[in-house]
Amino acid sequence: MLRANALALSYGATPILEGVSLEVPSGKFVSLIGPSGSGKSTLLRAIIGLQAPSSGTIETDVLSGDIGMLFQDDALLPWRTAEENVALGLRLKGVDKGTAIASARLWLTRLGLHGLSERFPRQLSGGQRKRVALAQVLAREPRLLLMDEPFASLDAIVRARVTQDLLRLVESRGISVLLVTHDLEEALALSDVVYLLSQGPRARISGRYDVPLPRPRDPIRARAHPDFAPLLQRLWNDLSREVGGRAA
Amino acid sequence: MNPNWTWLRQSVALIALIAVWELLADKGYFNPLYMPAPSGVAVALFQLFVQGTIWPHIIATFSAALGGLAVGLAVGSLLGTAAALLPLLRELLEPVMISLNAVPRVVLAPLFVIWFGIGIGSKVALSFILVAVLIFFTVFTGIRQVDRRLVERVVTLGGGRIALLREVYVPSVVGWVLGNLKVAVGFAFTGAVVGEFVAATKGLGYLLSFAQSTYNSALMLALVLLIMVFVLAIFGLTGLLERRLLRWRG
Predict the structure, then answer these.
(1) What is the ipTM of this complex?
(2) Backbone dihedral angles phi then psi of residue A112, each to the nearest 5 degrees
C-alpha cells in the first residue's frame, strides 16, 4: 500500500503541488493523469525519494528495496550489456553475481529478448531497450511499481505488446502500480483507479475514478467493454475542463 | 576516391616527397648544414642503433615520460574526482588548476631542475605537471557532465555512493580520459624531452641539445623521427585500449 497525504512541493519559490492526496491499495493498478506540466512526474519523483516534499507525508508498508521505478526514458547503462543491466538491479539488492546473471537471462527470455542478452543498449531497438528496463525492474520482484510514462516513446504496436506483457506480470504477481500517463485510454485499460491531477501551479487531485472492468484484463479488449467508452468520455470532459480552465 | 586506398595514396605522397627532397639535396639545392638529405638522416639513425649508444638515452626518456604519465594520470584522476564530488575541494583546487593551465607549464622546467636535480626526477616532474592538469580537467568535466538519468536510475535501484562511482562515474569518465590519452602521451614526452633539453646527462632531449650545439642537423632530424615513431607506436597501443574498453560505443 502507498498513501500520499496532503503533499506539497515547490521548485524554489514556484509551488508545483499542493495538498495532493492519493492511495495505491495493495495489488491495485492506479493511474495518474493530468495536463502537461501539472506535476505528475514530480509527484512520482517525490514518492521514490528523488525530490523532497515541502510538506505532507508519504506512507507505505513496502520496503524501499521492494519499490521499482520505470522512467520515461530507459536510462540503461550504455557500457553494460542487456543482461548486465538487468543483473545490476539484483546485485544492488545483494544478490551474488552468478545468480543475478542467471535470473537476468531468465527475465530477458520471459520478456521476449532471448538471444539479445549480450547486446549493448545501442544495439537494441527502442522497444527492446524498454523491455530490458522493464526486466531490470521486474527481476527485483518489486511489490510496488512506479512508472513515469514508460512507453510514451514506443510505436503503437510495440507499445501494446509491452503493455500486455507488463499487465500479465503485474496481475499474476499482485504488484501494486502507480502509473503516470498522458494516455487516457491506456490509463482506463490498465487501471483499477484513475486519479486526475488539476492544472498547476498548486496542482491537486481533482478527480478519482473507479474502473469497474474485470480482471485478468487484456488492455486491448478492455476498450470494447461497455463501461469503457462512458468512463473515457467522463475522463476526457474533466481533463478538458482542467486544461480549458487554465486557458480561460 | 576510394577511402580504402587512403593509406596507399598517403604512402605514395610521402615517398614522392622524400625522393624530391633527396634529389634536390643531391643536386646541391640545400645546404647540408641546415637541411641534410634523407639518406644522411637515415645514416645518422642507423649509426645510433649500430653503435648501441642510443639505448641509454631511449630508456631515460621513456622512463621519465611513462613515469610522469602514470603519476599524472593517477593524481589528475584522483584530484579531478575529488574536486567534482566535494564542493570544498573544488573551491580550493579549481583556481590552482586554472592558473596552472593558463601558463605554458614547460616554463617550470628550470625550477624543477633546481628542486629535483638534473637526474630523472626533474623530467618526471615536468611530464607529471603537464599530464596531471590535463587529466584533472578531463575527469572533473567528465564527472560533472555525467548523465543525471543514469545516476537517478542507479539510485532508484538502491545504489549508494560506491555503486554510483563504480557503475556510473568511473565508466563514464574512462571514455573522456581515453579520448584525451593521446594528448596526455604527447604531453608526457614533451615534458621529458624539454626537461632533458634544459639540463640532463642523458635522454633524447639531451642528445638533441648535443646535436644542436655541434650543428649536427642529420642527428637532430634522426632524433625527431625516432621520437615521432615511438609516440606513434604508443598512440597505436592507446587506440587498441580505447577500442577494447569503449567497445560499447561501437
Answers:
(1) 0.84
(2) 80, 25
A153 touches chain B (CB under 8 A): no
Residue B32: asked if its preceding bond is cis (omega within 30°), the reply is no
Burial bucket for residue B149 (CB in 10 Å: 0-12, 13-18, 19+): middle
Q: End-to-end alpha-carbon separation of chain B, Å?
A: 25
Mean pLDDT of chain A: 90
Check whether B105 has a pLDDT greater than 90.
no
pLDDT at A201: 83
What is the pLDDT confidence band of residue B47, given thresholds at 50, 70 and 90?
very high
Q: Which three cell numbers stand for residue B197?
A: 633539453
Q: Is the pTM of this model over 0.80?
A: no
Q: Enumerate the residues of chain A whose CB falls inside 8 A of the CB of residue B164.
A: none
Give the contacts of B230 (CB within 8 A, at least 6 positions apart). B58, B62, B189
Amino acid (one-letter) located at B68: G
Q: Which amino acid is it at B72?
A: G
> Which chain A residue shows the shortest CA-CA distance from B154?
A89
Provide the grid cell at B141: 568535466
Residue A54 in contact with residue A9, Cβ under 8 Å?
yes
Query: Which residue out of B149, B150, B248, B249 would a mutagenesis test of the A interface target, given it has the greatest number of A Cβ atoms within 10 Å?
Result: B248
For residues A45 and A117, is the Cβ–Cβ distance under 8 A?
A: no
Q: Which amino acid is at B51?
A: Q
Domain borders along chain B are: 45-249
CB neighbours of residue A166 within 10 Å: 27
Sheet holding A14-24, edge to edge: A14-24, A2-11, A55-60
Give the CA distances from residue B60 to residues A42, A102, B45, B72, B208, in Å, rounded to whole numbers and listed in that order: 60, 51, 18, 18, 14
| CATH 1.10.3720.10, applies to B45-249 | yes
The one-letter amino acid at B93: L
Disruptive mutation site among A41, A63, A77 for chain B (greatest number of B CBs within 10 Å): A77
Helix axes B170-198, B109-116, angle to 10 degrees: 80
- The CA-atom distances, in angstroms, between B234 and each of A54, B187, B214 are 56, 13, 30
